Amino acid sequence: MQHLAKKEKSIPYGRQNITQEDINGVIAALQSDYLTQGPKIAEFELAFADYIGARYAVAVSNGTAALHLCALALDVKKGDKVITTPITFAASANCVRYCGGEVIFADIDPVTYLLDIDKVRSLLEASPKGTYKGIIPVDFAGRAVDLEAYRNLANEYGLWIIEDACHAPGGSFQDKRANSQNCGNGKFADLAIFSFHPVKHIACGEGGMITTNDEALYKKLLMLRTHGITKNDDAYTNSIGFAAGTPNAENYPGWYMEMQILGYNYRLTDFQAALGITQLQRADSGIEKRREIAQKYNSAFEGKCFIKGQSGVIEGHAYHLYVIEVEDRLGLYNFLKQNNIFAQIHYIPCHLMPYYRSFGWKEGDLPMAENYYKSCISLPMYPTLADDEQLYVIDKIEEYYKK
User: Fold this and answer.
1) Domain match, 66 and 124 both
2) 236 and 224 in one domain?
3) DSSP 8-state assignment for residue 55
């Protein structure tokens, strides 16, 4: 391939795409009567639930808040053991620790990079039933976990499932009847969460969403999101007389509200929701473009000895990331950076972060995850990545390994 001149403009691994339609939507929200707790929140929630195919959606301040609220809604408490993957952002595990639970990491499948269900089953079989409370599988890089298989396993051991689908809005997997199941649709997981960080498919600046088909969990999440407060007359426990300040009152007054559980301020703003609404309208075209980019990378790297990762565009993959495994990853990372290509590493294994090492995790515990970390690198992947920019990235990788 002909070498291209050094790019003056940097090429990041991910980038938001803000259009005039997005700007107009945010301006309209800023000019409205509400900056927060207004109608745009419900509009975004309804649109997102419809897009994913879930009954309910709850918008929150970020993906980490979404995970925390899920753990709270499922009553994770001190001593509860929950299984998750080490190849994820730390928040997938931290939500358990926020509630005092114990995080148990299981190794990954070296081909899919997803939490290995056989390793999870081995953990469950090695302990009495009831030892573990739940599983948090992650749709890593946009590749969907087989949640039907996990649901069957969870049912066998009485476990709940939180699907971390931050990388996979619009992603899907095939169930046993060859039906396409959208990530986060609530058919197999009790709860699912999404992130609207700028490098994700849908950007709100910050923001997150929880989806579920469980009405009781949905109602609990609504309270937990807003300090544990309800304004629902049917849910009040204090008397009408107390609420109104007079024994003669017949109805709860309009100002009244009750804090019934300990909750948090994890709300999304209306102008963030407005941005999410217009971003969501382009979600399908964005995934289509991501898959085109993945196909170009696949074609360029096919048969290359220095590539150990991707092979073929995977059905249902949402391609938040395009991860390859290479020899001399550090050398390649630095070379790309010198040429204004800012790749990224996803992820440092969670169990080897100093915090989790303090619980006894050590090198050698999860060899598949640790081997993956030594060679993984995420290449630029976002819908506005231009053809010449992608060609430049491919060219520089080949140039490096020819040396």
Assistant:
1) yes
2) no
3) S
